[in-house]
Every structure is written in C-alpha cells, then in structure tokens.
TrEMBL record:
Cited NCBIfam families: rrf2_super (TIGR00738)
UniProt-recorded name of the protein: Rrf2 family transcriptional regulator
Residues of the signal peptide: none
Keywords for the protein's UniProt record, in alphabetical order: DNA-binding
A single Gene Ontology CC term: cytosol
Gene3D superfamilies: Winged helix-like DNA-binding domain superfamily/Winged helix DNA-binding domain
Matches recorded under Pfam families: Rrf2
GO MF entry, a single one: DNA binding
InterPro entries for the chain: Tscrpt_reg_Rrf2, WH-like_DNA-bd_sf, WH_DNA-bd_sf
Amino acid sequence: MLSQKARYALRAMVELARAEEQVTAGELALRADAPRKFLEAILLGLARHKLVTSRRGKFGGYLLARPAEEISFAEIIRLVDGPLALAPCVSRTAFRRCEDCSDLATCALREALLRARDATAAVLEGYSLADAVTGQGAELIG
C-alpha cells in the first residue's frame, strides 16, 4: 500500500512539474495539501537523491532537477517507500527470501506476486510527472 509520505511526495512533485518557476516549501505544502514540516523532510530526501534542487534564502524554493518527462512515479515511490514488490522474494531492487518460505521454486504465491510486481512496475515506470500534468497516459492507470 502506498504510504502517506509517498502520496505527499507524488503530489509535491506533480506540483513542481506544473510550476513554471521555483516554488517555496510553504506554497508547495498548500498546493500538495501536505503538512509543511513533513513535506520539507520529504523534499530534503528528494533533493539528496537529485530529483529536486533547492535554493535557500528569501528568494529560495524548489525546482525539479530533471525534466518532468524523465521522472517516473515508480522512481519517486521507490525512493520514499522502497521496492514496489509485495514480497521481498519478487523484488528486483531488494530481493531476499521470505522468512517462512522453504523453497522459492515451489512457492504457491510467488508467481502471482511476480506478475503483480511486473504489472505495477510497468504502469508506474511508464507514467511520468509530465503525464500526470497533461493527463496523458490516464488509460494506463484508469
């Protein structure tokens, strides 16, 4: 399930994609309907991973670090929430065997979880901030 933190991050990033110029943390919190202090912590993490750039001071604010077309929902969610997979044994980025699994090859759940991971990743990797702003690709998530 998508965390509230990831929802705020996605909303803030979509708002930054909509913006023609830098946006202050306060304005971004209003636009994203997020608590300012919490959003500032999220933005700090996004800046560390080079998804946003920030400028300090009176005329400071936030901007996307890359074009909106190059930032997918999957990238943001992975940074905030971790792997998209429902179980660690099907994760591409954080694979590990499930604690209660005796054999990966005969696991009755694994095939369905692999398919769910692949479908989720295909949609979220194929949906960019630019798509969210323009409404393009809505049929993918509809």
